[in-house]
Amino acid sequence: MSLRIRVSFTGQLARAAGVKEQTWEAPEGTTPADLVVALARERGGEFAALLLNAEGQPRPTTLWVVNGEQVASEPGGRPLEDKAEVVLMTPIAGG
Q1: Is 94 within the bounds of a domain?
Q2: FRET pair for 91, CA 20 to 30 Å: which of 13, 27, 47, 50?
Q3: What's the chain look like in SS3?
Q4: Has residue 73 got a pLDDT over 90?
């Protein structure tokens, strides 16, 4: 069975992706980290550089919000559910 996940991007991620939102189909058991890596590899370029470090792992500075709750931006974690809503955000700097 595959999952349908709604993914939203903010700020520079939306600019790099060229969209603010997309629906993603993923296999059952997909974690937030799996989703981030798959999206980064699919889109590549600046989008991937914003999400992944040089080793191809998710950057710990990216914020992941799943169904309204922030989750750890690291490998592992609880698998996503069908119709989950995921928001990906890069850190905001300023002063």
Answers
A1: no
A2: 27
A3: CEEEEEEEECHHHHHHHCCCEEEEEEECCCCHHHHHHHHHHHHCHHHHHHHECCCCCECCCCEEEECCEEECCCCCCCCCCCCCEEEEECCCCCC
A4: no
The number of folded domains in the chain is 1
Mean pLDDT of 43-69: 95
- Whether residue 51 is contained in a domain is answered as yes
CATH number at residue 20: 3.10.20.30
Spatial neighbors of 70 by CB under 8 A, at least 6 apart, are: 63, 64
pLDDT confidence of residue 23: 96
Residue 63 counted as domain residue: yes
pLDDT of residue 93: 59
pTM for this predicted structure: 0.91
